[in-house]
Design brief:
By secondary structure, the protein is of the alpha/beta class. The protein has four domains: 63-263 and 275-318, no CATH class; 325-379, no CATH class; 396-530, Trna Endonuclease, Chain: A, domain 1 (3-Layer(aba) Sandwich), CATH 3.40.1350; 595-754, no CATH class. Helix content is 59%, strand content 9%. The chain has 32 helices and twelve strands. The chain has a five-stranded parallel β-sheet, with helices on both faces. It has a five-stranded mixed β-sheet with strand order 8-9-10-11-12, with helices on both faces. A hairpin with a 7-residue loop joins strand 8 (417-421) and strand 9. Residues 61-320 form the AAA+ ATPase domain. This is AAA ATPase domain-containing protein.
C-alpha cells in the first residue's frame, strides 16, 4: 500500500514504517533507499555482473559480495534493494533466494535452502532439461538434416526427453553425457546421478525427498546414492554450489543472499577447519558460476574468516552511518517532497542522537511524525530529546540486568551487590558492585540512562569521579543505546575505557570478556598475603568453578522443568484441539473454529496471514497460558498462582491486557471488513476486480494502519514479565514485523489471488 495515501476519515497514514527491520521477501514498493557510498558501490557491482551475464552467458560471471555493518545499518535493506534492482534491470527475469543463517551448522543452512528450493521444482527440472537439450543439440547439429532440430532444442521449443523417445535415440548414452556434464560441477557423483534421474519417470518424489536432506530411499540406494546430503557439512555446501550453478546456468542471473552469516561462522569456527574448508569451496563454486552471492553480517564477519577464504570474496562493502543531508533527502522522499513537520535543525539533531544509524533514524522519525501530527505542530528540539529518551527507556534494561547477573553468577562472582552506594552521596551509587580482591576493591558496573545531551554526560562524569574518590576499582559503563559520537571521548576519559553498548546477540560474550579482564587486573594489583597466599588463587578459581557448575546445574534443572511443563502444555493443547475437531465434525460439519474462522472464506494465503497475525498476538501476550497454568494442581500451578497474585494487580498489566484485547479486536474487525469486500467481487456478475474495488480495499487497509499506529505495543512486554519469561528477540521482532506490515501483506495476497493467470 502506498505510504503517501491520505485518509480523510482517520487522518494521514504515518509515512515512516513502524518497524525499521528490512525483510527481503516482503520488500514493498514504498521502501526508500538512500544512495550512500555503500549503496552505489553495491549497485555498480550488480550492474557489472548483469552486463557480463547478458554479454557472455557461456562465460562464468559469478561474484561474491560481502556486506558488513553493525546492527541497524541497513545490510538486509541493501541486499533487498540489489535484488529489486536486478529484477528491474532485466524486466523481472532474475531468480533470487534469501536465507537467514542459523547459529548452527552449514547442514542447517542447507536445509533452509532446500525448503526454498522445493518451491521451485519446475525451475530445477527446466534447467536439467536445458542441459540435456544442449547435449542433444551438440550431437544433432553435425548433420545438415538434423541441424534445424538442434536449433529448436537450443531455443527450448522441443522437449529433449520426448525427442529421444520419438526417434529411438540412445537414451543411456545421452544421459551418461549429462551425468558427466553435471560432474564437471562437483566431484560428488551422487548429485549428478540424482539430477539425471529427474528426467526419468517415477523418480521425482524420491529425488526431491533426498534433496530435502533425508536419507536416500531404496530406489536411490540401488542407483548408487547412499548418503544423505546433510550427512556432512561438506556435502551440504557442495549441494548448494551445484544448485547455484544449475539455476544460474547460461544467461539466467541468480542472486542468493546469506544473511547474519557471522553467527553461523562463529558456531562453525568452534568445531573444526573442515567446515570452513567446505565453505571456501562453496565460494569457489559460486564465483565460478553465474551466481551473485551476497554475504551479510556484523563487522567481525570478515575477521572471523581465514585469509584464504576472504580471498574468495570479490568485493567487501562496509555500511556507513547516514549524514544529515542524506536523512533530509530521506525525509523529503518519504513525505512527497516536503520537510515539515521536521526542520533542518531537528533533522541534524536526529542524526546526532542516533549517530546516523538508519534503523534508529527511521524509528525516531516514525514516533516524531506521529507526535507532531497529534499535536498539530512542528517537531522541536525538546520533542526530539523527549521522544528519544522514551524510546531508549523502553528498551532492553530488563534483559541487560538479567544477562549481567547470568555472567556474574556463572563466573563464580555471586557475591555481587546490586544498587550499591559507596557512601551516602547519590553520585556514589553503582548498579553492580562486585568485590574481587577484598571488600574495598572490586568492579563497578554502571548502567547508563539515555545519553542524549551534555546534562546526561555530566551526570556520568560526576558518578565516575565520586566512585573513584572512594574506591580503587575497575569501572565499566553499559549503554542501552550507542551514545552520540561527539560524547564518546568524554565518556572514555571518565570511565577509563570504551562504553559497552548492549546488543542482544553478543552482549553476554562481550560483557564476560570485559569483566574477566577487569577482575584479573585487580587480582594482580592486590595479591593476597599470609601462609595460604600461594594457593589462594587456585582455591578461588576452584570455588568459582564449583559455583559456576552449581549455577549451570540449577539452570539445566530449571530448563528441564520448563521443557517438561511446555511438553505437558503442548500435549494438553493437542488433546483440546482433537476434542474440538471431533466436536466440530459432529455438530457443525467440520466448520473452522476460533478467530481464524472469521476469514475462512478468503483465499488460503490470506487465511494463513490472519492465522499468523493471531499467533503473533499470542506470542507477544502469553498471559492466557499463565492463567490456564494457575488452575493446575502441581508445582507449576502453584508457581503460576504466585505469579498471578504478585503481578495481576499492577496497572501496567491491566494496560497491556487492554492493548491485547484491542489488537485482537482490530484484527478480527479487519478480517470481517475484508471478507465483506471479498464477497462483493464480481457483483454484479462479470464485473470482476474494478477500480472501485481496489479503492475500497485500499481504504480498508488504511483504516487498519491508522488504528494500529496508535496502539502502544511496547506495553505488551509487561505481560511477558508477568508470565516470567521473555520472548526471544528474533521471534519478538518477527511478530512485530508481521503486525506492522499486516494490511499490506493481506492486500498483496488478495490482489494476487484475484488477478487472472494468463496463458
Amino acid at each position: 500500500m502506498d505510504a503517501f495515501d491520505h485518509l480523510d476519515l482517520s487522518g494521514e497514514v504515518n509515512p515512516y514504517p513502524s518497524s525499521a527491520v528490512a525483510q527481503i521477501a516482503d520488500a514493498g514498493s514504498t521502501s526508500v533507499t538512500i544512495p550512500t557510498v555503500a549503496v552505489r558501490r553495491a549497485v555498480n557491482a550488480m550492474d557489472s555482473y548483469l552486463s557480463a551475464v547478458r554479454a557472455r552467458p557461456q562465460t562464468p560471471s559469478g561474484q561474491v559480495l560481502a556486506i558488513v555493518g553493525d546492527y541497524g545499518t541497513g545490510k538486509t535493506h541493501l541486499a533487498s534493494y540489489l535484488i529489486r534492482h536486478a529484477a528491474a534491470s532485466l524486466g523481472g527475469a532474475v531468480q533470487s533466494v534469501h536465507l537467514n543463517a542459523p547459529p548452527d551448522t552449514f547442514a542447517s543452512l542447507y536445509r533452509a535452502f532446500a525448503d526454498k528450493l522445493a518451491e521451485r521444482r519446475e525451475l530445477v527440472h527446466e534447467r536439467v532439461r536445458s542441459l540435456y537439450a544442449e547435449i542433444l543439440a551438440d550431437e544433432l547439429r553435425v548433420s545438415s538434416a538434423t541441424a534445424p532440430v538442434a536449433e529448436q532444442l537450443r531455443a527450448g521449443t522441443i522437449d529433449p526427453v520426448a525427442l529421444v523417445e520419438m526417434f529411438g535415440l540412445m537414451e543411456s548414452a545421452f544421459l551418461r553425457q549429462l551425468r558427466e556434464r553435471l560432474r564437471e560441477v562437483t566431484d560428488n557423483v551422487e548429485f549428478s546421478q540424482a539430477l539425471t534421474l529427474l528426467l526419468r519417470g517415477g523418480f521425482e518424489d524420491a529425488v526431491w525427498e533426498w534433496f530435502s536432506g533425508a536419507s536416500p530411499s531404496d530406489v536411490l540406494r540401488e542407483r548408487g546414492i547412499t548418503e544423505a546430503i546433510t550427512s556432512s557439512e561438506t556435502t551440504a555446501l557442495q549441494a548448494m554450489g551445484v544448485f547455484a550453478l544449475l539455476i544460474g546456468h547460461g544467461d539466467h542471473p541468480f542472486v542468493m543472499v546469506i544473511d547474519e552469516l557471522d553467527q553461523l561462522l562463529t558456531a562453525a569456527g568452534l568445531r573444526a577447519d573442515e567446515a570452513i574448508d567446505a565453505f571456501k569451496e562453496m565460494l569457489r563454486v559460486f564465483a565460478a558460476s553465474n551466481t551473485f552471492l551476497i554475504l551479510a553480517g556484523l563487522p567481525d564477519l570478515l575477521g572471523s574468516l581465514r585469509r584464504d577464504v576472504r580471498d574468495r570474496i570479490t568485493e567487501h562493502i562496509t555500511m556507513s552511518t547516514l549524514t544529515a543531508a542524506e536523512v533530509q533527502d530521506y525525509v523529503l522522499n518519504r513525505q512527497g517532497g516536503r520537510l515539515e513537520p521536521f526542520t533542518e535543525q531537528t533533522v541534524a539533531q536526529i542524526v546526532d542522537l542516533t549517530s546516523g544509524v538508519p534503523r534508529q533514524v527511521i524509528s525516531l522519525c516514525h514516533r516524531l511524525w506521529r507526535r507532531a501530527h497529534d499535536q498539530r505542530s512542528l517537531v522541536t528540539p525538546p520533542m526530539v530529546r523527549q521522544t528519544a529518551r522514551e524510546i531508549y527507556d523502553a528498551g532492553n534494561a530488563q534483559n541487560v540486568r538479567a544477562e549481567i547477573r547470568q555472567v556474574l553468577v556463572g563466573a563464580g562472582y555471586d557475591t555481587y551487590v546490586p544498587d550499591h552506594f559507596l557512601d551516602s552521596g547519590v553520585d556514589s551509587r553503582v548498579d553492580y558492585w562486585v568485590p574481587v580482591a577484598s571488600n574495598d576493591v572490586g568492579c563497578a558496573i554502571l548502567l547508563s540512562e539515555p545519553l542524549l545531551d551534555d546534562t546526561d554526560i555530566a551526570a556520568v562524569e560526576r558518578r565516575c569521579r565520586s566512585i573513584r574518590a572512594h574506591r580503587d576499582c575497575e569501572l565499566l559503563l553499559v549503554a542501552l543505546e550507542p551514545p552520540p559520537a561527539r560524547y564518546r571521548q568524554r565518556l572514555r576519559e571518565a570511565v577509563g575505557r570504551e562504553p559497552l553498548t548492549y546488543h542482544p546477540r553478543s552482549f553476554v560474550d562481550q560483557f564476560a570478556l570485559e569483566f574477566k579482564a577487569m577482575a584479573s587486573r585487580l587480582e594482580e594489583r592486590y595479591p593476597q598475603d599470609g601462609p595460604l597466599a600461594a594457593v589462594a588463587p587456585h582455591l578461588t578459581r576452584l570455588d568459582r568453578r564449583q559455583s559456576a557448575t552449581q549455577h549451570l546445574l540449577t539452570v539445566l534443572t530449571g530448563s528441564l522443568e520448563e521443557l517438561r511443563g511446555r511438553n505437558d502444555q503442548q500435549l494438553a493443547a493437542i488433546y483440546r484441539e482433537l476434542h474440538d475437531i471431533q466436536r466440530g465434525l459432529s455438530s457443525t460439519g467440520g466448520e473452522r473454529r476460533g478467530h481464524v474462522a472469521v476469514v475462512a472464506t478468503l483465499p488460503a494465503p490470506v487465511v494463513s496471514l490472519f492465522d499468523a497475525a493471531f499467533s503473533a498476538v499470542d506470542l507477544l501476550t502469553p498471559a492466557r497460558e499463565l492463567l490456564r497454568r494457575a488452575f493446575q494442581e502441581d508445582e507449576g500451578g502453584r508457581g503460576a498462582r504466585q505469579s498471578v497474585r504478585a503481578r495481576m494487580r499492577t496497572s501496567e498489566v491491566h494496560a497491556a491486557t487492554g492493548v491485547t484485547a484491542l489488537l485482537t479486536s482490530l484484527i478480527e474487525a479487519f478480517g470481517h471488513a475484508v471478507v465483506e469486500w471479498y464477497g462483493s467481487i464480481d457483483q454484479p456478475p462479470g464485473s470482476g476486480l474494478t477500480a472501485r474495488h481496489r479503492e475500497r480495499l485500499d481504504t480498508i487497509c488504511r483504516v487498519f494502519d491508522v488504528v494500529y499506529e496508535y496502539l502502544p505495543l511496547y506495553q505488551l512486554r509487561s505481560l511477558q514479565g508477568m508470565v516470567g519469561y521473555t520472548v526471544p528477540d528474533r521471534q519478538q521482532q518477527e511478530a512485530e514485523d508481521l503486525l506492522g506490515d499486516f494490511s499490506s501483506r493481506v492486500r498483496t495476497e488478495l490482489l494476487v489471488a484475484l488477478t487472472p493467470v494468463e496463458g
